[in-house]
Amino acid sequence: MRTSLASGICDRVTEYITQAITIEQFDAWYAPETWDVQWDDDDEATALVHVIDELMAEYTDGRWREDELRVQLHEGLKLAARA
Fold it and tell me: I want to staple 63 with a disulfide (CB 3.0 to 4.6 A). Which of 23, 29, 49, 58 is the partner?
Protein backbone atom coordinates (compact mmCIF):
# COMPACT_ATOMS: atom_id res chain seq x y z
CA MET A 1 0.00 0.00 0.00
CA ARG A 2 1.34 3.41 -0.98
CA THR A 3 2.13 5.81 1.85
CA SER A 4 0.40 9.15 2.19
CA LEU A 5 3.49 11.15 1.20
CA ALA A 6 4.29 8.82 -1.69
CA SER A 7 0.70 9.15 -2.93
CA GLY A 8 0.88 12.92 -2.65
CA ILE A 9 4.14 12.99 -4.59
CA CYS A 10 2.71 10.78 -7.33
CA ASP A 11 -0.43 12.91 -7.52
CA ARG A 12 1.53 16.15 -7.87
CA VAL A 13 3.95 14.67 -10.41
CA THR A 14 0.95 13.48 -12.41
CA GLU A 15 -0.55 16.97 -12.28
CA TYR A 16 2.72 18.35 -13.62
CA ILE A 17 3.06 15.67 -16.31
CA THR A 18 -0.48 16.38 -17.55
CA GLN A 19 0.22 20.13 -17.43
CA ALA A 20 -2.48 20.77 -14.82
CA ILE A 21 0.21 22.68 -12.88
CA THR A 22 3.40 24.43 -13.94
CA ILE A 23 6.89 23.40 -12.95
CA GLU A 24 6.98 26.42 -10.64
CA GLN A 25 3.78 25.27 -8.91
CA PHE A 26 5.13 21.74 -8.63
CA ASP A 27 8.43 22.93 -7.17
CA ALA A 28 6.67 25.30 -4.74
CA TRP A 29 4.81 22.27 -3.33
CA TYR A 30 7.54 19.67 -3.71
CA ALA A 31 10.53 21.38 -2.10
CA PRO A 32 9.01 22.07 1.34
CA GLU A 33 7.01 18.85 1.34
CA THR A 34 10.00 16.57 0.76
CA TRP A 35 13.08 18.40 2.05
CA ASP A 36 13.37 16.20 5.16
CA VAL A 37 12.10 12.90 3.72
CA GLN A 38 15.41 11.15 4.45
CA TRP A 39 14.63 11.40 8.18
CA ASP A 40 11.20 9.81 7.82
CA ASP A 41 10.71 6.08 7.99
CA ASP A 42 9.15 6.03 4.51
CA ASP A 43 11.26 4.08 2.06
CA GLU A 44 8.78 4.47 -0.78
CA ALA A 45 8.62 8.26 -0.53
CA THR A 46 12.40 8.45 -0.10
CA ALA A 47 12.95 6.42 -3.28
CA LEU A 48 10.54 8.65 -5.23
CA VAL A 49 12.25 11.79 -3.95
CA HIS A 50 15.67 10.51 -4.99
CA VAL A 51 14.46 9.78 -8.53
CA ILE A 52 12.65 13.12 -8.84
CA ASP A 53 15.57 15.08 -7.36
CA GLU A 54 17.97 13.53 -9.85
CA LEU A 55 15.70 14.27 -12.81
CA MET A 56 15.03 17.82 -11.64
CA ALA A 57 18.79 18.42 -11.25
CA GLU A 58 19.40 17.14 -14.77
CA TYR A 59 16.63 19.43 -16.06
CA THR A 60 18.10 22.40 -14.19
CA ASP A 61 21.53 21.61 -15.65
CA GLY A 62 20.05 21.68 -19.15
CA ARG A 63 20.14 17.96 -19.84
CA TRP A 64 16.38 17.78 -20.43
CA ARG A 65 13.92 20.11 -22.08
CA GLU A 66 10.70 20.47 -20.13
CA ASP A 67 8.80 18.05 -22.39
CA GLU A 68 11.61 15.51 -21.88
CA LEU A 69 11.46 16.06 -18.13
CA ARG A 70 7.76 15.16 -18.18
CA VAL A 71 8.54 11.93 -20.05
CA GLN A 72 11.36 11.07 -17.65
CA LEU A 73 9.14 11.75 -14.61
CA HIS A 74 6.41 9.56 -16.11
CA GLU A 75 8.92 6.74 -16.58
CA GLY A 76 10.21 7.27 -13.04
CA LEU A 77 6.70 6.88 -11.62
CA LYS A 78 6.17 3.68 -13.61
CA LEU A 79 9.43 2.23 -12.26
CA ALA A 80 8.57 3.24 -8.70
CA ALA A 81 5.15 1.60 -8.99
CA ARG A 82 6.82 -1.72 -9.89
CA ALA A 83 9.22 -1.61 -6.96
Answer: 58
